[in-house]
Task: structure prediction
Amino acid sequence: MDTVQKANPFAKRESHGQRQLIAYRILTVVSWLLIVITSVYYTFNAPKDGKYHRETIWGQNRAHPTPFSLNKAITSVYWIVLFVGQIGYVWHLFVADEETLNAAANVGSHFIMNNLFGFAFIMLWVRSHFWLAELMLLLNFFNLSSLYFRHLNYPRAIHVPVVSGPLAFTYVAILWCGAAMVNAHTLAARILANIAIWGILVYGIFFLAAFKDYTMGFELSVLTA
Result:
């Protein structure tokens, strides 16, 4: 059991070895740069490869309007704020304070996976592979949900940009991509969409009631504005 615990990169640890910390620092920075560069590039450029319809991130949003289409300006500002906040998280991996360093390292594997799933989602979304893009979102939803429930008491400087912010977006993005995936324009689809919108409210209230976490409700309200 101890061997499995040591080999599990997602295990919560009281301390981390120097080699683990170096790995987290390198992979965190590289994966963060990957998602930031990919996000910026495909915000302004459509892919040139692929056999299906190709668009920018927001070009797809415009080409597939649904009840869950996102507001370009609000969502862009939302992610700019998260990316800037994540710089602060990355800095926590280089500080001397052991408690802060350990907290940052404990969420490192989940953060790296979030960046990789986000990269995969964008690459698939802009090339109209909506089913596979939805799968990436669902996998990341489980990744981030696990992160949330296993690391509840970390500082806001880590919790908001690394945990609740990405989780709130991923939940909304599942509905956004799913609606585009099924081309939700029928009456039945719109009825389901109205029900699902209430689900966003319930999801935010759950975190407020169960964990006294107002950040999830605030982030969900911003994304659905």
